[in-house]
Amino acid sequence: MNASDGSQDVLVTIRVNGGHTRANLKIASVLSITQRVRISISTTFSALIRTFSVSEFEFSKLGQVTNEMDAHELQSLNKLHERGAFPLPRDGDNDMISLQDFGSRTVEKACVKKRFSSTQIFFFALSFLSSWESILVNIRAAMINGGPRGLAWGIFVAISGALAQSASLAEMAAMQPVAGAQHHWTSHLAPLQYKRFITWMQGWITWFAWVSLLAGVANNAANMIQGLAVVNYPDYVPQRWHLTLIIFVILIVEGLINVYTVRFIPWIQLMAGALHVVLFVIFIVVFITMAPRHPPEFVFFNGQSASGWDNGFVSWNLGLLTPVWAFVGFDGAVHMGEEVRSAKAAIPRSIFYTVAINSVLAYTIIVTVLFTMGPLDSALNSGSKLPLIEIVRQATGSIKATTAMVSGLLVISLSVNSACIASSSRLTWAWSRDGGLPVWFSVIDKSRGVPVRAICLPIFLVMILACLNIASSTAFGAFIALSTMGLFVSYLIAIGCLLNARLWNKSFQFGEWNMGKLGILVNIYALIYTVWVIIWLPFPQYRPVIADNMNYSLPIFAATTSFALLLWVFYARKNWGGLNKEVVRLAVEGGVLVIK
């Protein structure tokens, strides 16, 4: 082949029943910033493979590799195959793909369950975010730092920042709606000379953040159950080990749902999304018609702080973290992208518009609750860990009504747990498929059609970490605090790479969902907001600072990034070839690479 056409020959050696058969493949090397490498398999070669049972698939390069990244891509492809992450087809096995359909739409239809319609993934994202519920459940943190004023005004900052972040991520999802999300986008958009390193760090940071997020949502649901027990049984004394056992039950049950009733998850999330809106209306009506009233001065100008922070600026920014947390995790829908029909259109809309809708609901509920919450001290000093329960009890005057309303929120919280397990497992599957985690976790169960091992891993890790809660709630809380820090750093890296490509890559092409020229300003604002929040995330919530109230999010984040960095230095720098472009292409087009 002539060098002028930018292509190189690759010799494929196939050992068939002890013999050798050879065929030439073409690797089109597009020498651009993204270094796209595509493998096209000829019809003759496909027919040959269909005839025999292939036991080994080897690639050897003919000619000189003209670019360092090409060598890494080829090395990655070989290593993935050797470790079982790139399995070859067997005729007559319905659980394996045939090479004739490798990367085609037939692969998608044969191997990938497109479980979610556009409507179902929209409601999945809507209920997963559950911003107004999250603010009510975590309102205590906002009341002790910044007070009602901080929450009433801080929500605008959180909403504007979340909209900018989600719009930026939606642009990337329109290009690659794949399970790996952030680390795939980083690989696609990062500067060539740093791409492998940045992608490696991004993959680990995002994965640790999602495991931490799963711990956080399970802890929230467990606290709600324990809080309802306190209200209904005054003699009950909550213990930390009780909370740990509740977390165990939640994770095991939700894990079984994700494995054995996966076909119902889109419908469960659809109903959860509808309940999310119905409960909002119920809470608004109850608070407006039954609760006492505070004057506007209390809502918009009361900045009392019970945290010990005398500096109002610091206290206000720490209170801001409550609404910020309410908008964390909107990338959950993207991790399900390979199971969504028309994903390039459905995923971006789901990301952005669910943030927009949740923003309206969250602001409305905040203003309503602040006007009708009753005495602030009573809410903060109630026997339950959740001031929300006392606020609802004061509004309704009935324990039964309070139990019913909070139980509705508990149903939403449990659906969020189910969705979080689904999203974190798909991210685990993708990161394993891409060579970060052991490839053993990337296997798709042939009978269930889901990555069972990838579902079990995050659940197992959170259960181990929940045991720390028995000895100290601070230790478990420290890991939970990693979620916001990790996800915001992952957003920072991905959006930074997007902005860099937008400004300097003249050949950069967007998906159908994009912001055009306005995107530069939105990306910049998203980066500013993300950095600003990251600055405040490590601050302790209380003063004076002691071991029990210390914020350990920064040390935990430093430990996880150090782990990833050490892996890079001693292993990945020489052995990990980066994301294989054929893997990315098949994922975008709907193919499955890891299946048994």
UniProtKB/TrEMBL annotation:
Residue ranges the record marks as coiled coil: none
GO molecular function: transmembrane transporter activity
Superkingdom per UniProt: Eukaryota
Compartment(s) of residence: Membrane
Gene3D superfamilies given in the database record: Amino acid/polyamine transporter I (1.20.1740.10)
Family annotation (InterPro entries): AA/rel_permease1
Gene Ontology CC annotations of this record: membrane
Record-annotated membrane-spanning stretches: 121-139, 151-170, 204-222, 242-262, 274-293, 313-330, 351-373, 404-429, 450-471, 477-499, 520-539, 551-571
Membrane topology: Multi-pass membrane protein
Keyword annotations from UniProtKB, A to Z: Membrane, Transmembrane, Transmembrane helix, Transport
Full protein name: Amino acid permease/ SLC12A domain-containing protein
Organism: [Emmonsia] crescens
Taxonomic placement: Eukaryota, Fungi, Dikarya, Ascomycota, Pezizomycotina
